[in-house]
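step=encode ok
step=design start
structure_in=
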């Protein structure tokens, strides 16, 4: 990691923060590498959940196009590959990732949000996906999977701002909350309280199941159940449940 991203893991909760507020947390090559390094580090830590946020008044103002000045197409391609690697590292994290977004969430900021397992937004948050208007291509895959092809096309083609309430109605974020930090802490505590093995298997089963039909999805879930039974930690859950219901 570098100064672009910070990571702290305390009591099972990892806090990853985009830390370039002077540039509105615009994503450059160094931030791409730092994000991937941060999530690689989370995967070998004792974290049970990740809160992903941005320092300053803006979550992320998108890609830092200034760094492309004077670069050739080969360099830009490598930069884009680095961004895909960063988003993939977020998405593949072994434990749940909750994005806490506020202010402007533009382009790459939306990609980061969509790579998380789910997102909470502060009131006043505004999304935009202006890639075609910047003369580039991006956000064509995760966005349509979250909100549907036709709405994704509208946002990409028109660069229309999307308010937090509408983003929630479309499923881009799960909830709009009055106190983002408090809501994030509450959600993280709830996730961290669950057995981490069951959470990890649940995350994997949902993700893999979303890529196939129901019959194959049930087989994916059964495979997760078999792995959970072999681990034996399910007995602790049964004991806790029976103790709580006495």
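sequence_out=
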């Amino acid at each position: 990691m570098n100064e672009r991203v910070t990571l702290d893991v305390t009591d099972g909760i990892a806090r990853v923060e985009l830390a370039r507020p002077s540039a509105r947390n615009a994503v450059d090559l160094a931030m791409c590498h730092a994000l991937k390094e941060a999530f690689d580090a989370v995967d070998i830590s004792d974290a049970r959940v990740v809160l992903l946020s941005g320092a300053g008044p803006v979550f992320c103002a998108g890609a830092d196009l200034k760094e492309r000045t004077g670069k050739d197409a080969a360099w830009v391609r490598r930069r884009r590959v680095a961004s895909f690697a960063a988003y993939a590292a977020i998405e593949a994290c072994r434990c749940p990732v909750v994005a806490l977004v506020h202010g402007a969430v533009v382009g790459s900021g939306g990609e980061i949000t969509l790579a998380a397992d789910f997102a909470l937004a502060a009131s006043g948050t505004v999304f935009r996906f202006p890639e075609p208007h910047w003369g580039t291509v991006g956000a064509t895959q995760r966005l349509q999977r979250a909100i549907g092809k036709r709405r994704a096309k509208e946002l990409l083609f028109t660069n229309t701002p999307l308010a937090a309430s509408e983003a929630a109605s479309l499923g881009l974020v799960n909830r709009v909350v009055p106190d983002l930090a408090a809501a994030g802490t509450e959600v993280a505590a709830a996730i961290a309280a669950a057995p981490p093995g069951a959470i990890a298997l649940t995350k994997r089963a949902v993700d893999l199941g979303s890529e196939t039909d129901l019959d194959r999805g049930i087989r994916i879930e059964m495979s997760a159940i078999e792995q959970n039974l072999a681990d034996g930690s399910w007995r602790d859950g049964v004991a806790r449940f029976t103790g709580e219901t006495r």
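step=design ok
step=annotate ok -> The CA atoms of residues 110 and 127 lie 7 Å apart.
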